[in-house]
Amino acid sequence: MATINFFLKYKKDPTAVYVRFKHGRKFDITKSTHKLISPKDWSGTKKAPHPRDENLKKLAISLKKLEKEIETSFNDTDISNIDSEWLETVIKKHNKDHSFKSDEGNKTVNDSIVENIQHLIDTAAVRPNSKGTLGLSTSRVNSYKNLLRIIKEYQGKKRLKVKDVDIQFGRKFLSWMLNRKKYAESYALKKIDDLKTVCREAQVNGLEVSTQLPKVKGGKSKNKYILYLTPEELKKIEETEFEQAYLLNAKKWLLLGCHIGQRVSDLLEITEENFVTRNGLEVIELKQKKTGSLATIPILPKTREIIAGGLPTKISSQNFNKYIKLVCKEAQINQYIEGSLIPKEEGKKTSNTEKRKVEGQYQKWKLITSHICRRTFATNNYGVIPTPLLMKITAHSTERMFLNYIGKNSFDYAEMMANLYKEQK
After folding, report:
1. For 16-57, how does the pLDDT look when each residue is reduced to its tens digit (9 = 90+)?
2. Could you give the percent of the chain with pLDDT greater than 90?
3. Is the same domain home to 298 and 420?
4. Domain stop point among 215, 242, 261
5. Domain total of the chain
6. Residue where one domain finishes, among candidates 61, 96, 131
7. Is residue 381 situated within a structural domain?
8. Are 380 and 242 within one domain?
9. Which domain holds residue 275?
10. What is the pLDDT of residue 105?
């Protein structure tokens, strides 16, 4: 008599449910059912899901049906055709509604949003990236992991499908993230974009998606707070003396960053090797980590002045973020401005998922982060250096993105035109 048992092979969350078919000594076949479950929801004793909610009950029923189908198929199939391919065919037939064959081989993925997000995460290493190579970045994978966590919380006991993502779904999901979870608008819109990417990927794999998917509202929000250091503030920082070596070093990195306009991931990696001479012109040449593009920045007199005593010493991005706040505090960059901060409560620890920024009036030094280098460079040089040249250095692909980044609008254009006209007269 044939025995059919279900079990979990791995401890990762979620993990696939496996089935083992055994008949006498001749047949002992194990295959994945392509059904996902959290290990904490599985009973090893009963070899079935704990019936804690409707989804788990449905999974238990589905596995029972699969067991019957395997048994029936075995009785109806010639003994010479009983092998691993036969069992895989029975499983595929059972899962034929709303499933597709992934690029991992025999694995099938159904139409649930959760499973399709997980599939994208699982195949991240072989996906093309913006640099033209394979492998999504760690930050990109983490972004999908956060989406997975959010969707699981949002759906609760329901089982949301990729075809459910239409305009109405987008509005409700966005409203839930903004009003219930208190996520920042930019973060919530980014999660909508990530979800649309997951759905488009599912569509490529043959799953049904809503015809309204392209119209679901995502995108970037307009920068609410444009934070940068003015030339006067940079001068105050430059003239402030520091006794502590680590603050003096951070000050040097900050000033250098504000004058060459690079992301902190590229700025803090600069060494003497990045300083080269091309056709008699001294430049800083580096390959930007995020875009993979080559940036060539001319070494201007102020840059030479900052590094006259040599480059600042190596520092982590975490310490850079922490120390430049202290640098700006010592330099009395302390006027109150509009911004948002995560409030610190004494004696209370919060996870990253619980942290929320609170808008209000804060001393400017408290709002300083490493991102201020690139934005300071872009803002202070807008209208001084031609915009296409600025964009080459800051690595913005469109002028619209660049202007949104520094918070410029049509009135700024009009004001610039008026000023140029006055200068010409």
Report:
1. 899 999 998 889 999 988 788 889 989 999 999 998 877 788
2. 50
3. yes
4. 215
5. 3
6. 96
7. yes
8. yes
9. 231-342+357-424
10. 47
In a domain, 349, yes or no: no
- Per-residue pLDDT of 68-111, as tens digits, reads 999 999 999 988 889 999 998 898 888 765 455 555 545 556 88
- Judge whether 350 lies within some domain: no
Structure tokens, 380? 């202070």
Q: Distance (Å, rounded) from C-alpha 17 to C-alpha 36?
A: 6
Which amino acid, one-letter code, is at 120?
Answer: L
User: In Å, how far are 260, 279, 345 from 270, measured between CA atoms?
Assistant: 11, 21, 37
pLDDT tens digit string along 272-304? 999 999 898 999 999 888 777 888 898 989 999
Cis-peptide into 14, omega within 30 deg? yes
Contact 257, 269 (CB under 8 A): no
* CA gyration radius, the chain: 28
| DSSP, residue by residue, 365-407 | HHH--TTHHHHHHHHHHBTTB-HHHHHHHHT-SSHHHHHHHHT
For position 183, which CATH number holds?
A: 1.10.150.130
Q: Which two tokens stand for residue 421?
A: 């006209």
Q: Domain check: are 191 and 257 in the same one?
A: no
How far is Cα 190 from Cα 181, in angstroms, rounded to an integer? Answer: 15
Q: Tens digits of per-residue pLDDT, 349-404? A: 544 445 677 888 999 999 999 989 999 999 998 888 888 888 888 878 788 778 77
Write the DSSP symbol of residue 409. -
Residues 39 and 168 in one domain: no
Regarding whether 118 and 15 lie in a shared domain, the answer is: no
Residue 192: is its pLDDT beyond 50? yes
**Global pTM?**
0.60
Residues whose CB is less than 8 angstroms from the CB of residue 109 and which lie 6 or more positions away in sequence, other chains included: 34, 99, 100, 102, 115, 116, 119, 202, 205
Asked if residue 223 is part of any domain, the answer here is no
